[in-house]
UniProtKB/TrEMBL annotation:
Topology in the lipid bilayer: Multi-pass membrane protein
TM annotation in the entry: 12-37, 72-88, 108-125, 284-303, 310-327, 339-362
Name of the molecule in the record: LPS export ABC transporter permease LptG
Localization of this protein: Cell membrane
Keyword Zinc attached: no
Amino acid sequence: MLLDFFPSRRLTVYLAKMFAVRIVAVLAMLVLVLMMLDLLSRTGDILAYPGNGQDDLLTYASLRAPQLVQRFLPYSVLLATIITLATLNQNSEVIAMKAAGLSAHQILAPLLLTATVVSGFSFAFNERVVTRATATLKAWEDVEYGPIPEDPDTRNNVFFNDGNDVLMARQLAGRGEASRLTGVTFYQRDDGGMITRMITGSRASFANPGWRIEDPVVFDVATTSTSRPAAPLVVAEGTSLAQITLRRVDPDAETAGQLSQSIAALKAAGRRTAELEGYWWHKFSGPLAAMLMPLLGAVAGFGLARSGGLFVRAVIGMALGFAYFVVENLGLAMGSFGGYPPLLAAWGPFVLFVLVGETVLVRTEE
């Protein structure tokens, strides 16, 4: 049995189905158009790598599409809200529902329920699909669209400082203590910054502390002699996993759980984590933007259509929705450099526009 907050079961299903169809249609249109524009700018770079062809363009599209869905799903809900309510208003269906005794909140209830389901889908989609696609795409871009690394966490051309000494590697793969380096070069320097010894190796693993270089080749600058120790050498013992984490953290490519581990590692090393904490909170507040859009776009569905104000109301609804995204990005930017606490930066815009949307709806219709 439905709660009194909802209209009848038949009307709830009718409105929810109409709204859901328009969300899918608007999202598909946006993603297709933006994908074509994106491919126009990226095709030359992808095909510039020898051997790349149409299959690689399709691979790029499959990796880029989840990012577009994530970014433009809330916009699709906003536009679908305006289209749905404006259509109902134009056909006098809103007037009929209000004449039957339904309040504005009851008319919006099926849309809010559908948007809540969309928010849940958005969170799961971001965690399971978008993060993996983003990590793979960035790893592919790092190799200039060459062969995609088997490990999306792979990073190229990394280096670590250990006091005056520097450890460089052509590639870093793996996570945590399972991290491994390939194409390793360790420069041991004196207090004046001059290189006194150079150790190279094909690969190295994390030794906790330091890095264990296998098959090392040691070059002594003072004697210009080269030696090959039989056993692996441990170098850069002053480095830590926090340095690895610091160079690898990409909030868009990590799930909420992985980002929590990265933040904990950076905190243990005394690093500033306010920006990452803001992005962590945004992983939960961001998908809820879809749930907020019906409330902000609701102004387009009420008022007399014959008064000529329908278009103006639709513009106001769009303005409120886009204002939310502007304030949301501003809040994250303020949180990034410490202007706002991470919790406020992520949740402040959402709470603010819930109050704004509710105020507009109550004052105009209730």
